Amino acid sequence: MHHFHYSGPSLQCEAVDLAAVARLYGTPTYVYSAATIAENFHRLQQSLAGLDVQICYAAKANSNLAVLRHCANLGAGFDLVSGGEIRRVIAAGGDLQASVFAGVGKTEDEIRLALENGVFALHVESEPELARINHVAGKLGVKAPIALRVNPDVDAHTHAKITTGRSDNKFGIPLKQAAGAYEVAAKLKNLTLRGVQMHIGSQLTTVAPFAEAVQKVAPLVADLQANHGITYFSIGGGMGIVYKDALASGAQAWWDAQPAAQRPLTPEAYGETLTPLLAPLGLKVLLEHGRFIVGNAGVLLTRVEHLKRGANKNFLVVDAAMNDLVRPAMYESYHEIVPVQRDSSRRALVADVVGPVCESGDCFAKDRQLQEVGEGELLALMSAGAYGFTMASRYNTRALAAEVLVNGSAFELVRQRETFAQMIAGEKVPAFLQ
Ligand SMILES: Cc1ncc(COP(=O)(O)O)c(C=O)c1O
Ligand SMILES: N[C@@H](CCCC[NH3+])C(=O)O
After folding, report:
1. What residue ranges define each of the domains in the chain, with the CATH number in brackets?
2. What is the pTM of this model?
3. Which has fewest Cβ within 10 Å: 164, 200, 228, 273?
């Protein structure tokens, strides 16, 4: 559920007219709803009520400082995958002592930064990494708290590029080798064994793969608790969101109308299945969801440049492009596209919605049915709060978009649109070319 809805003809985020945001800050602009983030966060927390749960929000989904601070204020720690993300949490005033540092290729500098700032644990992806962390911790004279990321080889039934828990993915230590790797870790004197971690993929739409993975890894967790005194089990992130009916799914009525067997995954169903599997372990549970918390909490506002009538199809050219939101080009993913001013008297238009980038893949939607819209009118690409801005690039020397956070009837620019001067600030023409 989320807080994007029409008030009469106008699309609003909470109590703010999206047209007003575009007038003030231009387009393309990402707009996030603070209330939606808070609601998702609380629902997730409630879903495993009764267990000792810490949400480590996956900052890679949306790492704007305002979003991080909002999550921190709600009680989140963070799941971080780079020194840059660690520094972002520090800059946002978040709690690193409730945060974990993951990733298959942590550098020595990044490990040092994590340890110096007292992260809750490092999530280790391989035996060579254990040795590296042990070495850095030794130089600092500290003990590094670690958990091994275990790869349970479970099919998450999601897009091949975002599945992470199969044996042919680069992530984690195969379950069969995990006990041995823990024995290796236990012998390294600068490490403290603190937990077990797993993550099987992103945009999971059923609870079954989560349950299968928890059941596969639970015996190892119980063993390590008995023999090494570990205190937590991180079951990763990955809860999927509704993309296809993105606008309608903001309302309770939409959920009520879904046949029970086809209802999208909810935190309540997730908690109902996983609580009985996790409770007997008696350990702290870490959740690392990103998309579920912020995905439906954001839209990308864009303006129509032209309607171009081609030989056999229409192209609606907008001012956002694949550099702003790469998901459709990268994963063929679906984002609902809606007008900011709705007008039911307009004729229907079927068009490819495309950006100005010089690639045929720069296409947000193929043969999409929309209301007829003309030059200068605004559209919203829904469910763009996760892996939207954080995956943006400057391809075609296009500036990074602006970001706005809405809270009730208030809204503020939380990232200025990049200027050309900022884009080229680190570049120079060398003397030998002058
Ligand atoms: C280790 C880890 N934790 C958390 C996440 C967040 O996933 P999601 O945004 O699907 O919840 C990811 C991304 O897939 C991940 O690799
Ligand atoms: N970037 C992906 C999700 C990857 C999650 C990170 N391991 C997406 O946009 O769906």
Report:
1. 48-288 (3.20.20.10), 296-423 (2.40.37.10)
2. 0.97
3. 228
